[in-house]
Structure formats: structure tokens, C-alpha cells
TrEMBL record:
Coiled-coil stretches: none
Boundaries of every Fe2OG dioxygenase domain copy: 225-375
Membrane-related topology note: Single-pass type II membrane protein
Localization in the cell: Endoplasmic reticulum membrane
Protein name in UniProt: Transmembrane prolyl 4-hydroxylase
Subunit-level organization: Homodimer.
E.C. numbers: 1.14.11.29
Amino acid sequence: MLFESPTGRRVDVFECPKPRQFLNFPPTSFDFFLPESPATSMGSYCNSSSVSVAAHTFAAEIPDFLTEEECKLIVHLAKLKGLQKSQILPTEDYEEAMEMIEISQMDIFNLLDHNQDGQLQLKEVLTHTRLGNGRWMTPENIREMYTAVKADPDGNGVLSLEEFKQLNIRDFHKYMGSQKVKMSDLVRNSQHTWLYQGEGAHQVMRAIRQRVMRLTRLPPEIVEHSEPLQVVRYDQGGHYHAHMDSGPVFPETACSHTKLVANESAPFETSCRYVTVLFYLNNVTGGGETVFPIADNRTYEEMSLIQNDIDLRDTRKNCDKGNLRVKPQQGTAVFWYNYLSDGEGWVGELDDFALHGGCLVTQGTKWIANNWINVDPNRRRQQQFQQEMERFAGSEAGPGAGAPGEWTVDKAYSGVHLEL
């Protein structure tokens, strides 16, 4: 199944995507480069009928990237490791935590007032509701909240600055904290675990990592020191509303993978996931597609995600309205970039068109895995991180070194062999 639009249009590309200019990393004791998005060579996984590519947002669908046996092994290892809820229900401490945030009422209004017209539209409030208690808010939820706290006297769904000034923000926090929330009400309803892929890991895990290196054409130094493989299970009723795999990086933002080495303090932190490679580990009986709501749009405008009470980010209700959808097929990989080029040979701004989500699983169970490749948009920090990891690896592999050190988690599974 290739990418499909609501009108039934299929985006089929029966030739390999052509590599474009490469990004050069400043020379150090090691040299490597980053391919400019969109750019890749599918290597041994690109043949006359194996790749489909989305047009505006670069996303490649690659059937048979994993074998059935490999998919089953990953699921088995994940079960052995044990899975945890990907998002927990809001705690009773929500109201207290919100009161500890030091932000004025005027600052809140200005944050929400996206177009700075002095009024808060429903969709402006909705785009920031993830600042709340983890519940996915709908237009209906916002209206109910307004009614409960008497926030909208004229009932037109719009809050003027004067109306907002009359409100007690604590009333909103109390309302949110009082609401009974189910797992289906959250941004994400799934379970997950992490599987180690480094030296000493199961041979299949190592083979998949090598395959990802060839697919992305990224240097081993980058891929080897990225996040472990995340394995996710969605039961019937599971979903993940549309989101970005990484966050924007501002001067005051640190990347999770380089922050300790850089020894810099920053008020914000993000994952800096340059590339996503998603694997489908089983065939799903019903639902569970991966949707890219705005992939083929000519322009991006955050407010356009919500029109006439239809929120394109809502994967429980509106997956059929997204521009591109990928049906889960066991062994298929989907590969995309989360950042653009900065035009100067490195990682640039977040690619808003990479917005994606997991559609509601209507029947059966969905298993996927994610390989994220981490690159710091700050060249100096990434370079420092790579040098430190090389030094660490060298000390681990010094004279008399035996098995990998204790940091190689999941090494207990390295010798697992199963009849699948």
C-alpha cells in the first residue's frame, strides 16, 4: 500500500530518489557529512518498485525493509524487556504544579493570541492546549470549560482581552484538575520500551542499525550514538495525535543527547531528532495508519490546522482528512527528515510539514518501532559530543578490555535465538 490521499490519489515513484548536495561537517579528527533533506540513496533497498515518495514533505515508504522473522524478534524482545505506558494520566498534583509556573495573565493572553488581534479564537487556544494536563482538547472541551468557569459571557466562543482580564486563571486550573480523564483522552495512548542496538546487542538489532546507516547515508559516528530503538504497542483504541518528533531549537534550547557533554545550562530541552525511520512490525486488522496531515500543502500556517471545528491533528476523528496516509504493512519502513537545511551546510529549522500521527487502531493491535537519528543543530556541540564519545569508546576498548561495559543495556538479550 503506497501513500494515499482522501481522494484516493496514490503517490507512486518507481525510481530511486536522487541524492542532492551533501552537507559537510567541519574537519576534525574524523570527517563526516549529513545528506541535505530531501536526499537519500536507498542503497541496496532501492529497486525498480520498492520506494514510494511523498511530494512536498520528503517521506519514503520502503516495503520489505525488515523480514517477518526480524519483526517477530523485535516484538519478542520488547515483551521480554517489558513495556510501560507512553503517557500517564494526569496526577492530582496538576493544580499545584500549574500554580508554581511564574507567568502573568497578560503573558498568557499574548502567548495564546497567535495573530495578535486582541481576541482569543477557539483554535488559538486549542493550538496551545498541550501546555495543560496532558489531555487532548477539542473545541467541545474548550466550550465546556468556558461555560464551567463563566469565561465567555456572550457565548460567541471568542475571549476579548477585557473578558480575559476578568478571569481567575486558578479557576481554569481547578477545572482541568477536576476532570476525569481516560487514556483515550490523552495526546498518546500506547505502551513502549527501548532496545539497545550498540556493540554487544543481538545480531539482528545490530544488522538493522547497519541497514539504517546505508538507508540514511549518515556516518556511523552519528547513527551509533543516537537513541536506542523504541518499540511501541497500540492496542485497539490506541492512537497518537499529530505531533513533531523533534522540537525547534532556539539559542536557549539544549539537545538531550549533547547537553551533558556541552556542560551548558538551558531552560528548555528537546530531542533533536534529525531523521525518523519508522518500522511496521505487524499487519494491523483495522486502522493504525501513519498520517501526515499537511504533507502536500504549498504553505504552512499553524492556525489552518483547525477549520470549522475540524482539527487535522486529531487522529481519533480526522485521519481521513489528512493529506497522506501510510497503511501498516509488516516489514515496511517509512523514512523522513524532521529538519530543513540551514543553507550553510548544516541542520536548519524544523520542517513543519513533517507533522504526523498514528491513526486510531479500530481493530486488533499495532506494533511499530522507531529509529531516531540525533544531530544537534549547533555544529560545535555536535562536534564536541562526537569527540567525547570517541574518547569514551576508546577508553572502553583499551588494553585488556573484554565485553562491553555496563552501559550497554539489554546485553542480556544479545544471545537470544528463537524459532519464529
